[in-house]
Amino acid sequence: MAEPALSTPPARRLTPRGAATRDRIVQAAAELMLVKGVNATTLDDVRAASSTSKSQFYHHFADKDALVHEVIAVRAKEILAREHQRLARLNSFRGLQRWRTALVQASSLRHGAYGCALGSMANELADQDEQARSALAGAFAAWETLIADGLRRMQANGTLKPGADADDLATGLMAALQGGYLLAETAHDVRPMEIALDMALDQVKTLLIS
Amino acid sequence: MAEPALSTPPARRLTPRGAATRDRIVQAAAELMLVKGVNATTLDDVRAASSTSKSQFYHHFADKDALVHEVIAVRAKEILAREHQRLARLNSFRGLQRWRTALVQASSLRHGAYGCALGSMANELADQDEQARSALAGAFAAWETLIADGLRRMQANGTLKPGADADDLATGLMAALQGGYLLAETAHDVRPMEIALDMALDQVKTLLIS
DNA sequence: GGAATAATGGACCATATGGTCCGGTTGTGC
DNA sequence: GCACAACCGGACCATATGGTCCATTATTCC
Q: At what angle do helices A117-125 and A64-87 cross, to 10 degrees?
């Protein structure tokens, strides 16, 4: 099945041209919302950045909220796809270190600016938009599951102690990552993110076997 | 000296009534910005919540940005005062656990909603307002110093290994706290915050002596 | 190739929002 | 008690912003 149209239940017919327009809008909005924040991104910003007109926007979306929800879905999909690739075969502490380094490097390219696409939207929307909060909570849960599954593989192959709680460790690693993003963004320096992730990894290290 | 008027260099004379009005505005704004976010809080919201008029606002503040900076200063002062009280005499692992529990309890009263006043403002403003970013970075640094100083007292009294880097541990604890706030806010459940802080505390525990 | 529908351009609208202005009142210092 | 400045109420303004509408052009399907 090709995209059961989660956000458009009636699923109107869509020509290739229409799909391209819709996609341009979502991509432009995703970029702007990462850089400026959701609330500070206006429909006019999106219109200009996507080279579309007002009517095109409202032809494809009910209102700004619908766009926001679509952006969340797209970001979640992107990030989970990227993390799936990085974590799907994780089964060693070295692999966890590589994961850490990849995240730090990506963030250091912009001196920590912008932070995590999911984290910043969660911060801005969690208390204002229940649908957004729920979607973001689901995305975080899925992300943590990718980590936890990797930790469980480490338990299965005798790398990590069986007594360790993989889910809790995954939550702790995610908190260190998100807190690291925030401190790095505020300091305009990735160092705090490195320190935070390293401290979390050190804790995992204490749970390794032998 | 009584408040060297950081935000109002000319430091116009201020009657008690004027000071009270100004304070009501800042307090109302601080509350609204915590609950709804900075961008989503309008001057009209603030005006209504503080029972003031437009002219009163512009009599005391140059513009909305000035208000935001004032709110940041007030929140930083509040939080640092509170944390100073909690951490000034910290010199044991038990004390660190009490610190953790106090934070978790405060957050659990609202099911994690709203998050950290400094963290949420940092997320929203760090990439948009350099002055705000700088002030928030300073507040985080001061906060981390309170923690680090406590850890150094633990080193001085033989509780914590001298080899441990107190500053890095403090940064890691702060990241766990902020990441915990974010995940708790998104999940509407303090559990992730508990897990994150406990994992960070476990790491400190591995550095205790004996 | 023609009807039906998707897609588009862009003028237009109502309201929200940050900000200004001015007349009047209250408080302060001498 | 008088001059002056702080303080205040609220009307007013320009613009930003989310959203509507309609005429016109592309596509698709039969």
A: 140
DSSP chain B: -----SS-TT-----HHHHHHHHHHHHHHHHHHHHH-STT--HHHHHHHHT--HHHHHHH-SSHHHHHHHHHHHHHHHHHHHHHHHHTT--SHHHHHHHHHHHHHHHHTTTTTT--HHHHHHHHHTTT-HHHHHHHHHHHHHHHHHHHHHHHHHHHTTSB-TTS-HHHHHHHHHHHHHHHHHHHHHHT-SHHHHHHHHHHHHHHHTTB--
What pLDDT score does B5 carry? 37
Asked if residue B94 keeps its beta carbon closer than 7 A to nucleic acid strand C, the reply is: no
| In chain A, residues 29-88 whose CB comes closer than 8 Å to chain B | 35-37, 39-40
- Residues whose CB falls within 8 Å of the CB of residue A1, separated by 6 or more in sequence, listed in order: none
Tens place of pLDDT per residue across chain B (210 aa): 333 434 434 457 889 998 999 999 999 999 999 999 999 999 999 999 999 999 999 999 999 999 999 999 999 999 999 999 999 999 999 999 999 999 999 999 999 999 999 999 999 999 999 999 999 999 999 999 999 999 999 999 999 999 999 999 999 999 999 999 999 999 999 999 999 999 999 999 999 998
* CA-based nearest distance A73→chain B, Å: 15
Cβ within 7 A of any strand D atom = A 13, 15-17, 42-44, 54-55, 58, 63-65; B 12-15, 17-21, 52-56, 58-60
State, as a whole number of angstroms, the distance between the CA of A47 and the C1' of D16. Answer: 15
